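Reviewers of the previous submission asked for a worked example of the structure-prediction workflow described in the proposal, so we include one complete record here. The input consisted solely of the amino acid sequence. No template or homolog information was supplied to the procedure at any stage.
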Amino acid sequence: MSTHAEATLYASLTDVDALEQLADTGLTTECIPTEGMHDVVAYAVEYFHRSGRTKAPSRELLIEQWGKRLEQCQITLPDDDVQVDEVWAAVEYLRSQYVLAESQRVQRDIAVEIAQAESHERVEAVHKAAASFHRLSMSVRDRSAEVEGITGLRDSLARYDQRAAAPKVITGMSLGILAVDEHCLGIHDGEICTWASQAKGGKSWTATHVAHTEWKRGRVTVLYTLENSVQMSYDRLACQICCVDYREYQKGTCSPEEVDRVREWLTTNETNLQDGLHILSPDSGRRTPAALVRQAQSYGAKSIIIDQLSHIEHPSPDPRRAQHQKIAEIMAELSTIITTGHNQVPVFLNAQINREGVAAASKAGRLELQHLAESAAIERYSSWVFGLLRSETEIAAGMATLQMLASRRMDLKNWRMAWEPWYGTQHSLGEVTL
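From that input alone, the workflow returned the following structure tokens.
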């Protein structure tokens, strides 16, 4: 038994976010060493579901309902707040200890049964042993991605009620463009948002813009700059935040007022934004989808931004593998990693429109999905695909056209954009029909 793991588990019963994590994992009460607490934990989880997944029982309510049981089990409900990640660690430990004890018991029983069995009974004894281990395996599996029919529909209605009570709430990652965010309502956990434009089309500027937006929202953000240097990314970020001309910033010819804006911003924000943004450029060999996501998760990232797809490395390099197959396998692995397990995150991914696509889009006056390089894989694994197109006239006017090329949750829309990201200008001027 782990006193710390159990204490963490009991602390989660009165915190709605922690209790949600516990409920979703589907921890069987048999994993809890203190048998008398099985009913208490089951009560708290049921309370959470009955409330529409919005409330946890208070400490006072649990004491009122289960005071004698708590006293008999010599359990004191902790007052301390508990982090969601701590709940997962506690659940994993309790499952591990339960598996150890149960597997030892099953092995002893099997050994005795096989030793005492007649020769014609031993094969059947092995089948029974396999069934026992299968039942044990199923009892300790993570059930966060498994939902029974009625429970799933009840949870769906609860999520709708939450949205109806607070419409237009951005859930997950914001793109920092108000009209787009209000339409999409955020890039949710486990979703890939692919942002495509031509070479030198401002993709990296959009990546730093999204990173700054998420940073301001208090979400730990990791930006992978796989093409540009970390230093360049921070130079761009400083100019975007403070509306400083990036070209003058690079030449060291900014006005004193522009430099003072950067200094003043740092003085004002260095405390409350400390440690919320990490811009990384991993070495070759550490750029596979798994390596990127796992490193970001080690920082506690709530949002991951990758610039760009063509620089992500395949986990099993093979020069004979066709490029379209390589991209498809990279996208598949990235999607699998962020949609499984208990720590799901949204990913903003830059991709390129190839030269042929740029020429075709310019002629047609609009982008199509097939204009993107390796568009089939991008469409298959992305929940959102945005394309940015700039005509010569728009470039001269500091404008652009932003298109939704694919979406799994919302209708497709297009926007006319004010687009000079090197000055910090990236906002919608209104919807357009193409």
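The first helix runs from residue 3 to 11. We consider this example representative of the routine output the project will generate in years two and three.
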